[in-house]
Amino acid sequence: GYSGGGLMIKCEHPQHKTKPKYICKESDGCSERKNPGVQDEWMENGDVSLCDDTRAGVLMVFFRELKAADAGTYRCGVNVSHYTERFTELQLNIKH
């Protein structure tokens, strides 16, 4: 992504369409997990907007006004059960 710009990430979990999905930054230990809190509509959560599309099994994450601090490794995951989760790692780089 580019500094000051926006970026859309699609995290696909088609086998877990209706399970709660989240995104978090690994460098902070994933202590703050951002999720929409509702399904099938856009919600703002801090500096990002999220939509959990249960028809496609996709968590859409829109970063606004990217800054250097947003760079890093993220986990895009889904809570399969109380004790089990699945996630994909992604690397976000910010260019000036």
UniProtKB/TrEMBL annotation:
Matching SUPFAM superfamilies: Immunoglobulin
Question: Which keywords does the record carry?
Answer: Membrane, Transmembrane
Tell me where it resides.
Membrane
Q: Where is this chain primarily localised?
A: membrane
Q: Which residues form the Ig-like domain?
A: 1-88
At the top level, the lineage of the source is Eukaryota
Q: Which GO terms describe its cellular component?
A: membrane
The name under which this protein is listed is Ig-like domain-containing protein
